[in-house]
């Protein structure tokens, strides 16, 4: 059985574990992308809505893969992440990403950005 969720795949102005910080506007023009598990394989569902708000990159999706949907329901998986190609970034620490090409959104066990989480289920 599928499960719908909402959450943030990215949170603005917060340094991630890799030393990057994504700035507001970096996802300008973001479109729907595949929903993956751990950034690999075939899609496990779909992203229904995606876009920037004041906090970050907010996504609404539906997980179709039964085992992953059950993990999400139980709260065993709450992390979100995104795959991208940098278009514009500053050099330095932290690296400030100001423009990128969004490739995919993933549910993950341990997100690079600890604040990137599922926050609601339906």
From TrEMBL:
InterPro entries documented for this protein: Peptidase_S78_dom (IPR054613)
Domain Prohead serine protease, chain residue ranges per copy: 5-119
Single GO MF descriptor: peptidase activity
Keywords noted in UniProt: Hydrolase, Protease, Viral release from host cell
GO biological process, one term: proteolysis
Protein name, UniProt field: Prohead serine protease domain-containing protein
Lineage: Bacteria, Pseudomonadati, Pseudomonadota, Alphaproteobacteria, Sphingomonadales
């Amino acid at each position: 059985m599928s499960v719908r969720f909402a959450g943030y795949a990215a949170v603005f102005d917060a340094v991630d574990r890799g030393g990057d910080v994504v700035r507001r506007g970096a996802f300008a023009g973001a479109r729907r992308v595949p929903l993956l598990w751990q950034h690999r394989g075939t899609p496990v569902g779909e992203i229904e809505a995606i876009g920037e708000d004041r906090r970050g990159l907010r996504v609404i999706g539906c997980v179709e893969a039964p085992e992953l949907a059950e993990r999400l329901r139980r709260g065993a998986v709450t992390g979100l992440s995104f795959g991208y190609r940098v278009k514009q970034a500053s050099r330095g620490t932290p690296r400030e990403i100001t423009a990128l090409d969004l490739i995919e959104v993933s549910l993950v066990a341990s997100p690079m950005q600890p604040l990137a989480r599922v926050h609601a289920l339906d």
